[in-house]
Amino acid sequence: MTIWLRLKTQFPFYPGSKLPPVPSVTALVTATFLRQPSLKPKYNRPAQSKLYLLRWYVINVLKLLWRYGLNPLRMYMWVEDILDKFMRIYRYQTHDYTFSSNERLLHALGGNDFTQMLNQTIDESMQKAGFSHKFINEVVCPAMRVNYGQGVNINGFVGAVSLAGVESGLWAVKGGNKLVCTGLIYAAKAQLIPGTVQSIEPKIRPNPAGDTVKLYYVTYNSTSGSSADMYDIVVIAAPLNRKMSNITFRNFNPPIPEFSNPYHQTVATFVHGRLNASFFGYQDPSAFHFGAILTTENPKLFINSLGVMSPAEKTPSEEKLPLRSAVWKVFSREPLTKEQLNLLFSSYDSVKVKKWLAYPHYSPPEKCPPVILHDRIYYLNGIEWAASAMEMSAIAAKNAALLAYHQWYGNTDKIDQEDLHEKLKTEL
Ligand SMILES: CC(C)=CCC/C(C)=C/CC/C(C)=C/CSC[C@H](N)C(=O)O
Asked: Where in this chain does the record put each Prenylcysteine lyase domain (predicted)?
């Protein structure tokens, strides 16, 4: 079963045709594998089913080799290489090092290679690295569309992150990712005031020792009405985009810049129902079992991807290929019409739609917004312009916390250090 799970993410659906004219090798073999009538009863006999899976795994690999040569293996190595460098950040942060800009952070991890990736598309990055057009369009592009709702014109760094996101071995949070936030608030023993920040303004106030200090006057709306408090340090962890968090910065000198770069709208539609096999080119619905349908670029296509929802910890029966009736997550640019839903699903009994500005609309060359907005005002979401993912937000948050701490105490030796990789090699 693992084999299928690994491969399911690499299945592009070719739009505009009943039967995919040239389905990706993965799609072809997955479908062939499922169509073996003799296979079904043998699911209950682990030894034989393993043999069958092995057989189809080998065939999958051969077909991939035939269609894409060594591109899939080279892509795996290319992403691993970037990931290895990226993971240096955990060591740097363990040693309390921090960076005053997102570009400096990236540069400290992967040098000019990383910062240059912000200035070119994933298409250009991969072409330069020798990947074929066919592979980029049929395998890389579907991964961009499912993860970022955009094609291979997104910047090279976020493209690599997106490819890391379709590899196996990812972790899911049982109960949902939102538990990471509540868990962190609990672990930090922070006092959470639920509300929406309206404005931030610098104020000069005397402290108990008789000196004057600069504080920040933050106004916010909460369930109990409008309130305000004074803070020494402010960390903004929301996209500073008028459509998303409309915070007014009053009386700042120099003024806080406006970040007008657009975020990209994604619509997630959750449908409990049965997929319409014939829409996907299958006359025999019993032969149609897919965990995910990814798509290549086509302006006529109204979905970016379609995938089955599965729990973080699957029971053995849930490990099997999904039945057609399940909860499906459809990603699209615009809300789906009733007609479109009726094309995708032969029947359904519940639909939930979530439309949101999920991530930046990438358009390299990319310049990330600053981490330091003003003396003791820090901004986390600028990192999203390098790549938007919860891992990136966690790294940006720790970076800002360390930066605020070191700037407060004047520990300049911990900020923007070059050659950390070499320096830390000798440390335990
Ligand atoms: C630099 C590289 C190759 C990886 C950095 C590590 C990282 C951030 C991995 C995240 C992989 C992942 C789960 C990507 C999914 S795409 C993001 C998703 N659409 C989202 O909105 O969070």
From this structure: 55-417
